[in-house]
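BUG: 3D viewer hangs when loading the predicted structure for this chain

Environment: internal workstation, default settings.
Expected: structure renders.
Actual: progress bar stalls at 90%.

Input used:
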Amino acid sequence: MLNRFQDRELLDLIRLVQPGTALREGLENVRRAKTGALIVVGESEEMDRIVHGGFHMDTDFSPYSLYELAKMDGAVIISSDYKRILHANVELNPNSYIPTLETGIRHRTAERVAKQTECIVISISQRRDMITIYKGARKYVLRDVVSLLASANQGMQTLDKYYSHLDEELEDLAVLEIENTVTVHDVCRVIQRFEMVFRMAAEIDGTIVELGTEGRLISMQMNELLVRLYKDINNIFLDYLGAGVESSFEMLNQLASLDTDELLESDRIARMLNFDIENSALGSGIESKGYRLLTRIPRLPTSVVKKLVQHFEGFSKILFATTDELEEVDGIGSVRAQAIVTGLRRIVEKTMGHL
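Structure tokens produced before the viewer hung:
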């Protein structure tokens, strides 16, 4: 799948501490105990210069060990692969001239260490009941599972509404394809709606990742929806641009790079998709090749769909083809030809019946 979450580095940070990981279990144990903690992930020469005191451990990481070691005042240092606890009860002395907007001593130290060493630093507030992650100049406050689930469910409800609107647009497009009255503007409008749904999905993606094992059901719903979306948008690109999978992904990435105002400009979308709008207006007619509607016919292999498209060069010709004409296509016998005619008739009846 094309992951469209905008902040890849943040997403990677969230994955490290999502529910279901041993590190998150240890952090939650410390948070619930209200002891507070300062945890550094990884070692470097810069880290060696600011670490003082404490004791060397180099023992297997476990949530219980982290919880017990956090009862001491000093920081805990664990390996970059999260498998070993390297040091405990250490004092961290980062450069005091590094700017920070934090107020508590623990959080000020965490931010400065993260900026100075580029290591991941996790601060658990004893007073505010918060887990904060720092890396370089980045900061992220983990949300509790209850609020995350509420946010994810609300997001999925909104996404369902977006998808319903897209579904309506696709049905309207199907009517135009059957009538052979599609314009460049119609295609651009549908593609704009796809991008809006993808952006809404990306908003929820980070929340699902942060939920970890607690978000399995929502993740399954999202993946099922994305499979349908990618299948449909790829067929749209095939129908009107003749694009392969790689080209489709490239165009999706270009669409994702547009800001909201740019996305709403149909002429910009048309140029991006290589429609010739210099010589043809957005209202110019354009015919579907038939990939999307042909895939609605039950048990019709993709290979046969491709042969039909290549043979007839236009959906309207396929739609009105007789069984004899269909049998001229390599790999289509009388039985399959009749199945195609019947399938197309049902598609027309169902599509035109919703008007």
